[in-house]
Structure formats: C-alpha cells, structure tokens
Amino acid sequence: MSINPISIEDIHRITSSQVIIDLTSAVKELVENSLDANANVIEIVFNNYGLNSIEIIDNGSGISDSDFEGVASKNHTSKISNFEDISKINTLGFRGEAINSLCSISHVKITTTQSPPKATILEFDSNGAITSQKVCSRVRGTTVCISNLFHSLPVRQKDFNKNFKREFSKCLTILQSYSIIHTGTKFSVFNINNKNKKHLVLKTQGMDQIKDNLLNVFGSNGAFGMIPIEIELNLNKFKSLSSFKIDPSGSLDYLIQVTGLISKNSNGFGRATNDRQYLYINKRPISLVKINKILNEVYKFYNLNQLPCFVLNFQIHPSFFDVNVTPDKRTILLHNESKVFEELKEQLIKFFDQQDYNLSKNFS
Ligand code: ADP
Ligand code: MG
C-alpha cells in the first residue's frame, strides 16, 4: 500500500479519542476547566449516568465574547503561550485540547458570561467551529453541556452503553479526589435517572479543612483516626551531586511541602485496602505508585496489620516536574525522583517516630 495522508477530519477523530478516552476523562477535563476559572461552586449533573448528557455548571470567571472563537479551536488556550510557560504554570489545563476534542466526539453546548445577567449560548460543529450563538441570561460563570458522548466512535460508544454503571462509578472516584483536596470549593454531583428523578450522589460544603471534605464524602467516620501531617522535603542537600538536576536558572531551592492527613500509626486506624490513598501534586490528583509504596512500607514499621489512609498534597515548583507525559496528566516525571523518595522516607519515619514519642509521653 502506498503512503497517503489521512483526512483532516479523521486525524481529528483519531487524536480526540486519545484525549477523551472515557466518561471519566471527559468529566475530569471539564471540572479542571471550572477549577482553572477559579470557580468555588461546581455542580455536575449526569443525565442517565452520562449516557444522555453531562452538564458542568460553575461560578467561575466566565468566557469573554472575544474568546468565543478560540474556546473550542484546537490547541487554543488562555493558560500558556509557549512551551516554557509549562514550567511556571499553576493551572490544571494548558494544551487547549479538551473542548476541541469533545466537539469531535460529542455535542457541545456552552453557556457563559463574564458580565451577567446577559449571557451567551454557543454551539459547535465537530471541528470546534461555532454553529449557533444566542443570547440568554445567567449568573456569572460557565455551563458546559456535552451530550451523545462517543457518537462518532461506534466501538467506544457501544462499550460505554454496556458498561455505563462501571464508568459512572469510576468517574465518581475521580470526582471524590478533586472534591476532597479542593477545600473552599463546593462540589455537588447529581444523577438524573431515566424516570427523570434527580439524585444527589456527592456533595462537599466548601469548608476550608480537608477533614471536613472527607466527612462530606465518606460520612461521619470519613476521617476517623487520621491526623494532620506537614513535612518538608529539602532536596538542596543533594545539589552537589553531579547527577542532580535543578531548575534551568539554578536559582530555585528544591523544596517540597507535603501536607494533608494520614492514618495514625497506632493500631487500628488504617484499612485493609488501599482504596483511600489520595496523592496530589499542586492539588492535581496523580498516580505515582512508588510514593504509595513508600508510604505503605514506612507505615508497616509501626502497624503490621493495616495500610494507611492518606490525603497528601505535594507542593512542588512546576519547574521540578514534568506533567506533560500522558494525555490525562496523571503520570508525573519528578526531577531527581530517587532522591525525592529517599528524603520522603526519611521525613516520614521522623514524623511517625515523633507521634510515637508524643504518645509515650502522654502515658508516662
Ligand atoms: P485548556 O484547559 O488546556 O486551556 P480546554 O480545551 O479545556 O483547554 O479549554 C479551552 C479554553 O476555554 C480554556 O483555556 C479557557 O480559556 C476556556 N474555558 C473552558 N472552560 C471554561 C470554564 N468553565 N470557565 C472559563 N473558561 C473556560
Ligand atoms: Mg482544560
């Protein structure tokens, strides 16, 4: 077979299906946009577990009229303007791909305003071009509604139709992880069933403690036996090693603040499974199994019977890690990873030893 170009339309479909792989990635991208727009109230409404539609309603910044053309255009973003910006950003998104990809695989409708009550409803074609623009009224913020998800990808649509309950529950797990770490933001998640009844599935109250969010998400025992943890990983001590990478300017201290909640090391407060282990970098839920392993391993020195529960945020300057590894941005490359892990282990042991010391002091 000779080498021929793929049509632009099909390239779009192929690449979009990598950005939005399932219900979870669709919802995750939209929630991240609301968080990036500094919303502190975010409502997510699934219609028939997302099979009909999903609506994300926020009270964030809204989108200005002059940005309407760009909002669903491929690789158009308000978050970076060049590659170097990635090492400085604090937003969850930066590739300008999500809305454009969603247009290719679902029907997208955006209602938004920066100067209420006058708002605009935008609809788009599969390439992300505006097909309809109407005036309506709305309080400040943005609503993104996607319907008929995966209509242009028959295999994936079939799979979604078949496994929608499993997909929905996976999606809830991710929504839990965002709502737990984002203190000060009220999350509510609803499902409208096929009898048109709206059920609340998840709600946080926008309190300023992670502990309160855990209680909201998991009920009154949600934070049972968990204590605050605050440790600092100081990587500067490794600076003299030739293999040690520092930021390009070399001017930043390589410090990582680790804060959150973790199970007490005394017996009885962990869990048999690792289903309540939440890890974040700069409040972005991430998957870094080696860190889970270190935490489990250190915890074992003190408690042989259980695994720890934890909600831990690693605050790291963006120049010390690379988030641009996988489309879902959950995989992270940390600079000097092995040294970070070494330091984490050392500081965790110190932290738990201190707990033991406090405990024995109280009983002496
Ligand atoms: P990215 O988040 O990588 O910039 P997206 O495709 O997710 O790309 O969004 C494109 C742009 O649309 C964003 O850069 C932002 O300016 C705007 N946008 C999307 N969703 C919202 C929202 N909920 N509130 C305000 N602006 C939004
Ligand atoms: Mg985005």
Automatic annotation (TrEMBL):
DNA mismatch repair protein S5 domain location: 214-353
Domain of life: Eukaryota
Similarity comment: Belongs to the DNA mismatch repair MutL/HexB family.
Name of the protein in question: DNA mismatch repair protein PMS1
